[in-house]
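pls ignore typos typing on phone
zinc ion + seq
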Amino acid sequence: MNLLDTHAHIYSSKFDADRDQVIAEIRAAGIEKIFMPNVDVSTIEAMLDCEKRYPDLCIPMMGLHPCDVKEDFEKQLEVMRNWLDQRPFAAVGEIGLDLYWDKTFFEQQKSALRTQISWAKEKQLPIVLHCRESMDETIEIIREEHDGKLRGIFHCFNGNLLQANQIIEMGFLLGIGGVSTYKNGGLDQVLPHIGIENMVLETDAPYLSPVPFRGKRNTPAYLPYIAERVGDLVHLSKEDVAKQTKENALNLFKEFKL
Ligand SMILES: [Zn+2]
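k done
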């Protein structure tokens, strides 16, 4: 199976002890590319190191994660803007809104999101969105900022069917990960009703391991378990899920030379 992991933090320090071994397992599992979302200024170096070390596999994005939007967010955004001006990135990400962890900086989160969306529009890059407890708020901002061409992924989608359809109507894809394998994840109520052409696969490693690895460190090597689960929900073979979701991802990231 040839799979693309559209969202994995393979540069995380959780892989520092055995990254070469993990990368070998990822290749053996048939994963062809790993798209790496940035988090904040402190993760850039490790991310670009991974790209340098595994250039055929690891592809970076650039952006500021909503959980790291704090007092200094404008300074952080300046650093990221400089990087985006210097070299290619697959997307602006991960960006978005998070009302789960801390609501203190919600206004700043919205401002950082709008700024980064404007960069994506200017540079014609897709965006990779993180939204937790904030799906409707994020959909509203995307709708307001949409220029007809803006595209991207709602990473770790865990919303309802109405929200899924709103996202699809805006031309965005749903990033489907380990949550699809959880009994109470809710995606069994959504995915059977939307087409595979609207989905991409992701692990969000090292977080959110799919069943039967739930609670353990996640790795892109577990992506076939997600492909199989999605196949069960949409009545396709895991090979067909792999093929179609790969095409969807390549289509989205086409501006970036893969
Ligand atoms: Zn992430």
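The pocket of zinc ion is lined by residues 7, 9, 37, 94, 204 (CB under 6 Å). The two ends are 19 Å apart (CA to CA). more later
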